[in-house]
Design goal:
The chain is mostly helical and 73 residues long. It has four helices and no strands.
């Protein structure tokens, strides 16, 4: 999750295509280390449009629905 969060922050900061090294550098700047999962994330994102992925994910989340909590009384 930390890799994805850093990747998204780099995108928001103006880096149009963050690399694995960019993510590692950002993580190390705050005292965190990268793991093997970074390579998996980068290969999963390779060649894909982030806006499209986010929109598809949003549609999937909408299917979950939500229930209201019980009233406290």
């Amino acid at each position: 999750m930390k890799h994805l969060a850093v990747y998204l922050l780099l995108k928001l900061g103006g880096n149009d295509s963050p690399t694995a090294d960019d993510v590692k550098t950002a993580l190390s700047a705050v005292g965190l280390e990268s793991s093997d999962r970074l390579a998996d994330l980068m290969s999963a994102l390779e060649g894909k449009d982030l806006d499209t992925l986010l929109e598809e994910g949003k549609e999937k989340l909408a299917k979950f629905g939500g229930g209201g909590g019980g009233g406290g009384g």
